[in-house]
Specification:
This protein is of the alpha+beta class. Helices cover about 35% and strands about 20% of the residues. The chain folds into 2 domains: about 5-45, Winged helix-like DNA-binding domain superfamily/Winged helix DNA-binding domain (Arc Repressor Mutant, subunit A); about 60-140, Lrp/AsnC effector binding domain/regulation of amino acid metabolism (RAM) domain (Alpha-Beta Plaits), CATH 3.30.70. The model has no long low-confidence stretch (mean pLDDT about 95).
């Protein structure tokens, strides 16, 4: 079992900031020898604490100028309705996150697209054609002063 200690926490924070940091630099930053640091990182990977490494993408460089969180309520509260909705969202390239949540609605989506016109097309041509969708509430992102997703 992986230790949940302060040193592993320091390693994880550094890797979350820069997943491409060399083991030598990581060891120096957290105050371990390179061999001890490498053993800990490998154990964190083996145990699944570190599930993978990702690139942080620049939305503007990819032509993404519009981001919205979209709350979606379904008209049926069945497993089959959820599965049908999730299959459509899995195929929608503008949906970068889909979360099944608790509360007054069933889903929260993160939608990224070029502009408002592209979002309108997604809203109408994708969400508007899913028979299970009962309500749609859009929250347009105006800025992201803190975003730790990698």
């Amino acid at each position: 079992m992986t230790r949940n200690d302060d040193m592993n926490g320091r390693i994880l924070r550094e890797l979350a900031r820069n997943g491409r940091i060399s083991n030598l630099d990581l060891a120096a930053r957290v105050g371990l020898s390179p061999s001890a640091c490498l053993r800990r990182v490998q154990e964190l990977e083996r145990s699944g604490v570190i599930a993978g490494y990702r690139a942080v993408l620049n939305p503007a460089a990819r032509g993404i100028g519009f981001v919205a969180f979209v709350g979606v309520g379904l008209n049926e509260h069945t497993k089959a309705a959820q599965e049908r909705f999730e299959r459509v969202m899995a195929q929608a390239p503008d949906v970068v996150e889909c979360h099944n949540i608790t509360g007054t609605i069933e889903y929260m989506l993160r939608v990224e697209c070029a502009d408002l016109a592209a979002y309108k097309a997604f809203h109408t041509d994708v969400l508007g054609t899913v028979p299970q969708v009962n309500s749609i509430t859009s929250y347009v992102v105006m800025g992201s002063p803190k975003d730790l997703r990698a």
